[in-house]
Batch of 4 targets.
Target 1
Amino acid sequence: MLSVRHLSISFTMYDVGLRRKDLMVISDLSLSIEAGEIAAVVGASGSGKSLLAHAVLGILPRNATARGELMFKNEPLTPTRQAALRGREIALIPQSVSFLDPLMRVGAQARRAAQLGGHGSAAAEAQRRAFARYGLASAVERLYPFQVSGGMARRVLTALATVGRADLIIADEPTPGLHPAAVAETLGHLRELADQGRAVMLITHDLEAALEVADKIAVFYAGNTVEVANRADFTSRGAAGLRHPYTRALLCALPQNEFVAVPGAQPPADALPPGCLYAPRCQWATAECRAARPTLRPLTNGYVRCVHAEVLVGRPACNYPSTTRSHTQVSRC
């Protein structure tokens, strides 16, 4: 459904003295999503997750330059094709509820989305079905965005994105700030969309949430794809199938895995280290890692950007805590 290969994005900016410069914020992102599949994109803030979504949709700022290969249904995603598909065959569930038009009732916004999605004269009926599907009473359609709660606004955004016939749904951070029950409900809706044959890109900081519904996980770090792994690689005992040290570190930082933290932070785009971008924080780093940036390569039914991946595969990712440990002991970790 979607193929992204070697995507790079730079921004034209002005430095001290009005000197023009190009800042490369994404240097090498690759990802593919099949019909009926949820591919979760995880990583720290600034790793390139939302920029990937905007590049696919063709809504990058004017000072951005994107290079690489973007394919949708085996055809190039040119700017003209992106404009034609946006809101029709490719739909976005945005991160912020501010994407709703504050001057238009939410029902009218959903009907407009239904018309754009191909329902034509049946747009009103499609809107009512979508609202009912996501637990929105008929009275909600007459409300303005400021009159609905945050959780309700997120359900409206989901209804707007799915009311049409889009084959690719991009969900950009759909769960932050939601009650656990609402998170489960939102993830369940995305799973249903995939089970209906649509492709879903789930962008999230929440690895635990991603593992609830995703078929595979793409891990981003400092504008690079460092690993693409199947969900089973994370959930099997010890997660020994994981290939990249950063992916393993993310897993070990989860509460149930002792909150193990890695020193340091993701480098900013204007201060990237030579060689492997994760090397300054990696316990496995060698001179080879610092000499050249590794390429993304296939390994054991996944992809990895690490020269030591073969050594890591088969080793437990982290030491799992005993279920008998007290809350105090875990907090101290």
Target 2
Amino acid sequence: TNHVESALCFNVGQGHIPLFVIKHFGLKNIYLTDRNLLSLKTSQHNLAKYQIESKAEHSVFPSGEGNFDFIAGTIPEKQAQGVYETFIQSINADLRPGAKAVIASTSTTIARIEDTLKSYFEILSSEKEKGNVALIMRK
């Protein structure tokens, strides 16, 4: 599905990824989740400058609600395998069937989770640059 009505961004930083997602899909609001409360508040503040509404959840993992057409975010590096598995399961639980996700991390992190990702998602594209990888996936 290419039509996106609801999107989630996780590990949002200062809000660059949510802003890109909003503009690319023409959305009016977005759902944010981050374990770093300062990042979450900064991202919300920066999005508000563009009259973009955002709902935010202070959480390590995405919400698991299954309501999103699109998810984007960065997977933290140097975590235990169980943390990665929970991240991937949360992303899977958040996506509607056929929906897409874009995740990014270091090449090492992506290599560690690739088999788990493939058990939940179809990898549509993989872009590698300077030790980082971005994956486009479909549920």
Target 3
Amino acid sequence: NTRAINKKYAVDRTLCMWAVPSGIFGLIGKFKDSIPYDVWALGSDIWKIRKIPILGKFILKTIMKHAYRVFADGIQLCRDVEDLTDVPCEFLPSSRKIPPPNEKMFTADTAKIMHFLFVGRYHVNKGPDLLIQAIACLSPETKDSVRVHMFGLGPLENELRKMISTLQLDEYIDLNRPIQAQEFSNYLDSVSFLVIPSRIESIPVVFSDALQMGTPVVSMPVGDLEQLVKKFGCGIVADEVSAEALATAIEEAVKKDKTFFREGTAQAYGQFELKNAVARWL
């Protein structure tokens, strides 16, 4: 099928998004049809394939060695790729254009309620359980001043609902199913912070989504997030990956206004803006 597409559209170059399996198709196109290919590693494929002893590393090295150029969408991920394959790897951020907001999700609140947003898989890696536990750790005064809106899908959903009920957090946390692009844009524009409570992460796309809307983040110190957030001053980073540390970061966030981070989010977004990433690849 790859070869048929290459012939039909007279493909000049292939960009393989994910090293595995896409890189295998790029490899075939090069060997069979002499079409050069670039590889863009996005994290999950590298983390999964390197768990396969010998064979996994062999597959990655073969794909990367024959690629014209190799990219990764994380700074640390670039180093991981280079360590695994001995092939130079360049940072190329992943981002997307989300629609402009067209509706405010919350009316002005005289009680100064601050709204926080989580968008991601309900999976242990993404840490939604840590976020719920962090809200439970907040002081009563802070807890009464925050509302958390969670959107996602995944194996932890039922467990998260039970956790919210058991910890008596129904008043503070709203757990929802997946969110659509326009609603996501409206929420990002309306909330004070996006929360990224991940246990493992490279640079999630929701990070650049938040920057695009000028929304600061509260994040765990994982992947490249700690370095980026501190470098640009576009949010607050927890001291460690724990519910208690995340609660402390949220307590700090409550004391700051969204506008405090305006300059930092704008500068950081310049690193991820879609047109800049495309220009870098071209």
Target 4
Amino acid sequence: TNNFPEIVYAYHQFIEANITVDVVSPEGGQIPIGYIHSSDTLLQKYLFDEALSKKLKNTLKPTNVPVESYSAIYYVGGGSAMFTVPYDKEIQNIAQRIYEENGGIIAAVCHGTAGIVEIQLGNGDFLVKGKNVSGFPDIFEDKKARYFQEFPFSIQEEIEKHGGSFKYSEEGWDNFALSDGRLITGQDPTGAKAVAKMVIDKIQ
């Protein structure tokens, strides 16, 4: 599933800033969403938001994305981000082109950071090499749990393996996010709003 709060907290910021948002997924079409907290009024509002619902039911296929039109790409977390997105060559290509050809921004939050660990730039270097990067840290994972055993990798280890410096807040759930040039990453769902604000600041 995809993390609905991480979609909404960022989407709300982008829409308020008059930034057009499209949603892409490896297969296109409807994506599963989860992690919906009924007590959160913003989530409740967007659960019934026609425009967002339509985008989540009709996500773009990577081959249908007009890359030259975009100034940023934002990866959300949830379990789906760990399995299909990291190895999707077409999505990697979209991100690399937005970053290098368009001079745009690559952003990710929580397990969404898994989606950027394999991105390579035109010179063959990994995107994360030499950069400060955040995502969901190992100390907050239950490494004995079945879900973690099924993950293809640890985000933290993979970032470090590819030359990145993994940064996180040991407190957690405290809006931790950071920007390193045009790479912007957040630690957990609470960082989604901060990531979106940093993206908007850079775009504007």
